[in-house]
Structures are given as C-alpha cells and as structure tokens.
Amino acid sequence: MHGMESVSGVGPTMLADVKPPFIPEGASGMTVLVEWPPGDPGTPPHRHSGPCFGYVIEGEVRWELEGEPERVIKAGETFWEPGGEVIHYQNGNALPDAPAKYIVFMMCAPGQPMLTLVGKEELEKRAHLRAPRPTG
User: Fold this and answer.
1) DSSP character at residue 127
2) Are 55 and 103 in contact (CB under 8 A)?
3) Helices (H) and strands (E) in the chain, counts
4) Which of 45, 63, 92, 109 is most buried, most CB within 10 Å of its CB?
5) Confidence band, pLDDT 50/70/90 cuts, at residue 70
C-alpha cells in the first residue's frame, strides 16, 4: 500500500488482495452499484467477460460461483470472481426483510457485454461443475 498513507495517520484498510487468472486484452473497467430489494433472487445464471471485484455495502448477498458452494457475503465483506467461462449462479439478496447493496468493479472485454445470461441447455451441460446444492 505504498503511497496510500494519510496525513491524519488513519490510512486505508486492505479489504482484498487478489491476483485474477486473466485480464482481457484491451479491457475497460466498469464500476456498478447493485441494489436488491428484500428477497430478490438477483440476476439469473450468467458469466462475465473478465474478472470482477466487489464489496457489500448493506445487507447480505447470496453468492454462488460454478464449482464453489453457495455462501452469504455480509456488509463489510468482499468478493471476487474470475470471469471467463465460470458461471455465476447466484448474486441475490439473502435477506427476506431488508435490502442488499453492493459495488462491483468489472474488467470487461472490448466489444462484449458486461454480463451474458447462460441458457438452460448450457446449464444442463455444465451441471456436473456446480457444487452440490444445500439440502433441507
């Protein structure tokens, strides 16, 4: 964190330090504020053309990436995803009675949308790559 010192003596706090597996050639950076009302399931299964990094500002977000068990990310916590072929299954509000809000920074490949929805046929073909679903 060289060069990030504060005059007041209170400096920045490192929240995440991640080395993504790739950054698309000629990528642009996009920062998005996502807000979900109580219980909103979020975006249907999708993928991003590059890596994404985020921070939950308010509430709790249900998060699930291909190959990883679903988890809940709470306000003050960070997340990241590699992008590329990895399917992002869940990013919705984990709380039924309160809103959720997060900021995400995405490295987008030129000429591609920031996210692409994944169709039913591809979901079925890649079902073996999804972590086991919670029971009960």
Assistant:
1) G
2) yes
3) 1, 9
4) 63
5) very high
